[in-house]
Amino acid sequence: MGIDEMCHNKCHKNPNNDNSNVPTEKSGSEYYTCPMHPEVRKWNHGECTICGMDLEPDVITGNDHENPELKKYKEKFLVGIFLTLPIMFLEMARHINGVNSILSEKNNTYIQFILSIPVVLWSGNPFFIKAYNSLRQKSLNMFSLISLGTGVSFIYSLFALLKPNLFPKSFHYQNGGIPVYFETSSIIITLVLLGQMLELRARKFTSLAIKTLLELTPRSAKIVINGSEQDIPIENIKVGDNIIISPGEKIPADGTITEGSTNVDESMVTGESVPIHKKLNDFVIAGTVNIDGSIIMKATKIGSNTMLANIIKMVNNSQRSKVPIQRVADLASSWFVPVVISVSVFSFLAWSLFATKQSMSYGFISAVNVLIIACPCAIGLATTLSIMVGVGIGAKNGILIKDPECLEVLEKVDTIIIDKTGTLTEGKPKVGEIHSKNDSVSEHRVLQLAASLAHNSKHPLSTAITCFAKDRGMNLLKVTNFESITGKGLIGEIDGQKVALGNKDLMQNMEISSETIISLTNEFPTIVFLANSTSVIGYITLSDNIKKSTLEAIKKLQKMKINIVMATGDNQKSAKLIANITGIKNFVSNVTPEEKLKIVEKYKENGHVVVMIGDGVNDAVALSAAHVGISMGNGIDVAIENSNITLLKGDLIRVVGAIDLSSKVMKNIRQNLFLAFAYNTACIPIAAGVLFPQFGILISPIFAAIAMSASSLSVIGNALRLNFEKI
């Protein structure tokens, strides 16, 4: 699959979907999914219809209730270990002089048989049910192999005990007895139960990031009702409520400060380590901590609509997604079990035909070894757990990964196309000069007309002009027939007269042109013109500061041999000024959204892996077209919706972090795949007895069970190791 296809096939149907169980009306928190096959969803606890793995809640919650599957395995493990230990002692007693004379060989075997019945049929019951379901679904899995290995061992031992004459001489020991494997079946089932318990416990840590975010929300809030304070559960907060936040308390909703000022710790939500000073009318985020001042805030977004809630949703959805490299594991898993069963049968036949003494007995052991030691789960878990941990790490560092499949692309990036305003710069322009070009229109009137138009737009330049006018107590005028022309400016009617506010391209569209417009555009880095239907009546200059982290981020990206191209709608002078300060060698000015798209497509056509970084409406199309779109969290919704990754604080240094994270996640996935494939490639032949002719080594089924559990746990442990990586 090409890189383009990987990043843009975001909505697809999967033939493995368990459609009969896909929710239609209930909320996502009420159903369960498989960590290896997220397309499988059910309304209740159970196992995956593809791999047999125990399902887990699709939406992670903050409660600490014990996993019912883990509780079930605990109970069965305790019974298993309680009965397996005496079975092991009885088996060892056969080989200890003096002890073996206390109990006859036959009685010893009968006691082992009786003790193993509840272990195999009750403790091992979940595995046999999973195996039956896998056969019914025509999707054999790890539990098919475990059940086949332990089931065959138990049934074989039962016949060896009750009907020994049915077996040929090649099954008999030199003393005439037939070996039984009641202890093998019991130990394997007990060890696999232990492995499942450890695996379920370890899998809990992959959702640690979401649980940490969930814990940020306070349980109650103090609101002002009719002049008095009242504590209410957080669920009862309404939009418009006035909430009192004391020092040290968590903020329970998104909103604006209506009274007081303070410093707020946003590190757990945005990754910003330095406390942010908040004053009147500033926006505060649910889940952040009020450090040192008492404030009153007005709730604007509550419950599932807060930024924190949306972050949790995004992270949860991302952790359930697959990356293209997962197809390697899926392909291997699809043929893995049939191949293992074939190798098991071949091993038995080879021993039976070519061994000299006790050939079938050795053949039986090797066949069971192969079935038990094989571990398709390690292959399946190799990618999914790394993605879950990686997405969680990103969230903790203010990097929201919406499409994890693009992590596979991001590590290969060689070209970054970057917007200027709000990306390289703070995106908070300040009004500089206001001039009138018409004797009948005062500078006050120029600002009033411009601000009245700008009030209807969310563009950073419009916001700057509107705030500048409001700070001076200026009354804004009513605008009709308002129109926003992306990349050019605004048009509307005020008091029945057509008024336009924008750059020289908008003026040209209105057939208003003069040498003054061209000279002023070349003189000031950022300038907007105010015009009526026939001529320019004034202009406003603006300036924007470069973000503190921009220079460091650009240097680090250039050290990574990444070509950086600045594409901005601003004029040549403004673009060149920013390019010189930041050290960006390639830049394009006066570009429209369509031209940004063409720039992205040109680099893609030339074989480059392209990342687009932006924050505005004029970046949305290019963000969607790039291999990876990265939006600034301080940008507008349409830009965020069209991106694959969102940087919560709009901090460019986090782009470096995102690339670093993608490299570490993909490296971890490759390590896991190597561990899984190397384990199975090495262990299956050893289990079959390949070392016996040369070295006399034939492992026991018990060792095979230990190795199988260790394989899955090694993959899980390696994925969890990502939590200690710094980005």
TrEMBL record:
Tagged with keyword Translocase: yes
Protein family per UniProt: Belongs to the cation transport ATPase (P-type) (TC 3.A.3) family. Type IB subfamily.
Membrane topology designation: Multi-pass membrane protein
SUPFAM superfamilies: Calcium ATPase, transduction domain A, Calcium ATPase, transmembrane domain M, HAD-like
Domain Heavy metal binding, chain residue ranges per copy: 31-57
Subcellular location: Cell membrane
InterPro entries found in the cross-reference section: ATPase_P-typ_cyto_dom_N, ATPase_P-typ_P_site, ATPase_P-typ_TM_dom_sf, ATPase_P-typ_transduc_dom_A_sf, ATPase_P-type_domA, HAD-like_sf, HAD_sf, HMBD
P-type ATPase A domain mapped to chain residues: 215-315
TM stretches of this protein: 77-97, 109-128, 140-160, 180-198, 335-354, 360-393, 673-692, 698-720
Gene Ontology molecular function: ATP binding; ATP hydrolysis activity; copper ion binding; P-type divalent copper transporter activity
UniProt record, GO biological process: copper ion export; copper ion homeostasis
Entry GO terms, CC: plasma membrane
A Pfam match: HMBD
Keywords: ATP-binding, Cell membrane, Membrane, Metal-binding, Nucleotide-binding, Translocase, Transmembrane, Transmembrane helix
Protein name: Haloacid dehalogenase
KW Cell membrane (keyword) present: yes
Major location category of this protein: membrane
